[in-house]
């Protein structure tokens, strides 16, 4: 059973995201460890529509998802939804937390295998987002991956530059040819669901 989706994310979008992530991981030559319970940090997750996708892609042998967002209402919705719809091999905790201040959350472990951010919003406060990326990289284990998706071409490039500037290694960046176009933008601006993905490795 799949979870209800929000107005801006459909089940078809999530199916495409699932396939896109798997294809990108394969192209990057990343072999996800078998028999390992994955620790995944979902940054600025909102309603966490992608939770089942992340469980399937990154945690077939078990996964602990920690979703963080500053918006109390969205976190409340995420908690309610994923109590019912999360796969059996997955566990999740959703916390109201400013992702630029992860250092204030002492209970959060420092050994996440994956940090994920969907539709990062870099040009809405670049210093804040750089801080979020920096905090996330510090929470990863030695082989940890930071994975982002983006709506826009230019914003994606800004994020690539910022994250590499923090010392992360860009493993792969890929344009999603199957992403669904969105039209809530000025004329001439291209926006689409999970338009790009980038995978970084902590150095």
From TrEMBL:
InterPro entries: Methyltranfer_dom, SAM-dependent_MTases_sf
Name of protein: Methyltransferase domain-containing protein
Record-annotated membrane-spanning stretches: none
Source species of the chain: Oceaniferula spumae
Pfam family, one: Methyltransf_31
Annotated Gene3D superfamilies: Vaccinia Virus protein VP39
Methyltransferase domain mapped to chain residues: 36-152
SUPFAM superfamilies given in the database record: S-adenosyl-L-methionine-dependent methyltransferases
